[in-house]
């Protein structure tokens, strides 16, 4: 829940900073959100390798995390936003296809992609 809250805060920051400023670009919140997503993945990998992680709650990014980061990229106004969103969506799809049910793209994922 805490990671999702921070991701959501980055999305809100991107929205506030570009609201009413057509054409203005601010990639910082999107980059920070994606960095946090990568951090979550690294920590989860460490937990999975550590035998003492039994009973530890997973922090593996789920669909909601990916959606929030993709949305933050859209709100950034970056010329790279389409590419970043497509890459994140593809990554989420691969996670789901390899058995991680919580990464299954939902209607929001597809709406962001469009």
Description of the structure:
- With about 110 residues, the chain is an all-alpha fold.
- The protein contains five helices and no strands.
- It has helices spanning about 1-20, 30-50, 65-75, 80-95, 105-114.
- α1 runs parallel beside α3.
- It is globular and about 45 Å long.
- The chain starts with a helix and ends with a helix.
- The mean pLDDT is about 90.
Portion in strands: under 5%
- Overall shape: it is globular
> Could you spell the SSE succession in H and E letters?
HHHHH
Total number of beta strands: 0
Number of helices: 5
Rg, Å, rounded? 15 Å
Largest sheet: none
Mean pLDDT: 88
Task: Briefly say what this structure is.
The protein is mostly helical and 114 residues long. Helix content is 68%, strand content 0%.
Structural descriptors:
single chain, mainly alpha, 114 residues
């Amino acid at each position: 829940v805490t990671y999702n809250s921070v991701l959501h805060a980055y999305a809100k920051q991107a929205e506030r900073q570009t609201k009413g400023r057509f054409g203005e670009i601010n990639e910082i919140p999107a980059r920070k959100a994606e960095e946090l997503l990568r951090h979550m993945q690294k920590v989860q990998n460490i937990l999975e390798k550590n035998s003492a992680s039994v009973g530890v709650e997973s922090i593996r990014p789920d669909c909601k995390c990916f959606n929030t980061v993709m949305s933050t990229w859209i709100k950034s106004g970056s010329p790279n936003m389409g590419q970043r969103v497509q890459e994140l969506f593809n990554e989420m799809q691969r996670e789901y296809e390899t058995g991680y049910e919580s990464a299954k793209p939902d209607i929001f994922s597809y709406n962001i992609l469009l």
